[in-house]
Amino acid sequence: MVDRFLARFGDNIAVLHSKLSLGERYDEWQKIKNGDAKIVIGARSAIFAPAENIGIIIIDESHDSSYKSDMTPRYNAKDIARYLCKQNNAILLSGSATPDVVDYYRAKKGDIELLELNNRANNASIPEMEIVDLRYELASGNRSMISNKLHDEIEKNLKNKKQTILFLNRRGYSTFVMCRDCGYTIKCPNCDITLTYHMYENKLKCHYCGHEESPKKTCPECGSSRIKYFGSGTQKLEDEVKKFFPEATTIRMDIDTVTKKNGHEEILNKFKDENIDILIGTQMVVKGHHFPNVTLVRSSSSRYFSRNR
Q1: Do 209 and 80 lie in a common domain?
Q2: Domain that includes residue 9, residue range
Q3: Strand 163-167 vs strand 278-281: parallel, antiparallel, or unpaired?
Q4: Model pLDDT, residue 24
Q5: Residues 40/50, Cβ–Cβ less than 8 Å
Q6: Is there a single domain that holds both residue 54 and residue 66?
Q7: What is the CATH number of the domain that holds 7?
Q8: What is the pLDDT along the chain (309 residues), one digit of tens a residue?
Q9: Is 68 part of a structural domain of the chain?
Q10: Long-range contacts of range 236-242, CB-CB < 8 Å, 24 or more positions apart?
């Protein structure tokens, strides 16, 4: 998004997000405060930018629950945006392909104006969508995360030198660990939620508080050695892709691979510039990116995929 705005509006832009260093954040803050930046782009906390004479606030993907902070101080950036727009007599524009039910209800009632985009950019055609029910795949003996139909479509893409995005909104390798004898599941001692197994680090991790511990070989409850790993995450999907398509180049994008500053940008640029065959990732990979060579996308429930012809 920053690249697109810079291309169109030049250096008249400030950017605010948590990955900036303190010095960078100070520079951007002063740039806004002094009026040198007319456009502010940022994550949730950017709503507190010291902008004056606000004319419009745009909330992209406004249905996303991440606009509500679950850390202290708790706030909803959408509510603050409404307040600021009211104070500045500004326009609040909420954009979403799947608006949340409250916003849509208010729009249908006439409390807010509903603007619809009925055509895609450049009048592009709607991609073909297909639903694959994995229950039938399981019944036919396919226990893989990749359906037979998806396997065929990826093979076509590889043959035609096209790119594929596989979206699975779960990190790690297995989503929970359970004892087959007594049903005990290993949980975080702080959050009381099941720990996720990360194979590459051989760790059980809590995705809420960051707690880590080594995998158990025996059940802490009954002492059984029948410990089983259930569920699937991006690491497991990456393993299966490499097993089925060893000739394909792959890259994974989730919180575990985006660990350093500008990590998102590096992975996306690598996928685009080096024409990597398959991008695997969580919701980061489906945020309005523009990859002309991508013709196949598989969604997070493992059942849906779309193809651009």
Answers
A1: no
A2: 2-109
A3: parallel
A4: 92
A5: no
A6: yes
A7: 3.40.50.300
A8: 888 888 898 888 999 988 888 999 999 999 999 999 999 999 999 999 999 889 999 999 899 888 998 888 899 999 999 999 999 999 999 999 889 899 999 999 999 999 998 887 778 777 788 888 888 888 888 888 888 999 999 999 999 999 999 999 898 999 999 999 999 999 999 999 999 999 989 999 999 898 999 998 899 999 999 999 998 899 999 999 999 999 999 999 988 888 777 788 889 889 988 889 999 999 888 877 788 899 888 876 544 455 654
A9: yes
A10: 236/145, 236/173, 236/174, 236/199, 237/145, 237/166, 237/168, 237/280, 238/280, 239/173, 239/199, 240/144, 240/145, 240/146, 241/146, 241/166, 241/278, 241/280
Nearest to 58 by CA among 29, 74, 76, 81: 81
Total tally of structural domains belonging to the chain: 3
Are 166 and 188 members of one domain? no
Q: How many CA atoms lie within 13 A of 103 on its CB side?
A: 20
- Please give the pLDDT value at position 239: 93
Structure tokens at 240: 């299966």
What are the E-state strand segments in 215-293?
227-230, 250-253, 278-281
Rounded-to-integer distance, Cα 189 and Cα 172, Å: 19
Q: Is residue 191 in a domain? A: yes
Query: What confidence score (pLDDT) does residue 306 get?
Result: 57
E strands of the chain, at which residues? 13-16, 39-42, 56-60, 91-95, 128-131, 163-167, 176-179, 196-198, 203-205, 212-213, 227-230, 250-253, 278-281, 294-298, 304-307
Q: Please report whether residue 236 resides in a domain.
A: no
Distances from the Cα of 160 to the Cαs of 5, 107, 251, 277, in angstroms?
33, 44, 19, 11
Residues 227 and 250 in one domain: no
**CA torsion 298→235→96→121, rounded to 10°?**
-50
Mark whether 16 and 94 lie in a shared domain: yes
